[in-house]
Amino acid sequence: xxxxxxxxxxxxxxxxxxxxxxxxxxxxxxxxxxxxxxxxxxxxxxxxxxxxxxxxxxxxxxxxxxxxxxxxxxxxxxxxxxxxxxxxxxxxxxxxxxxxxxxxxxxxxxxxxxxxxxxxxxxxxxxxxxxxxxxxxxxxxxxxxxxxxxxxxxxxxxxxxxxxxxxxxxxxxxxxxxxxxxxxxxxxxxxxxxxxxxxxxxxxxxxxxxxx
Length: 212
Prior knowledge:
single chain, alpha/beta, Ribosomal Protein L4, Chain: A, 6-stranded mixed beta sheet, 6 strands, 31% helix, elongated
């Protein structure tokens, strides 16, 4: 049975956590991770970029000069795409970039990321995170004792309590997330993942539901 040590807020070992072998089986599916990341980023795109066609640009209702006899080229509207201030021929219009990925594949990608992180020794488990106040230096003190204060860190907890939310909001390198919302992209987008014992138990149960 695989184990990982559990630390307290002082950075000292207080026990071992038994990793479920169905979840942490050492298998990493790079292709599945790539699909999950592409889907996540595509779904974040708003697709609001838009240009106006000749028919949407204001003005240009009157023919600027007569058709023949002036020596100039024939023009029907000053809003022609050939003119400055005219419409755009092949410009972007609002569109959706939404992609769909089956939930089982999303969970599989998360499982692969966690296995990769474990292999690279980028997972830390703590018994709990308890802040007596909402001061940023209190959280920094804990991270310093866990030796991760200068790295991009994902802090995963069952519930983001008020003190933790306020203490971490000014730290660009620290991102807090609940165990229910953790996905392949957010788990991958950090150097270290700090799980509380309860959060890691919750994630293992999430993943096991979709394993066949």
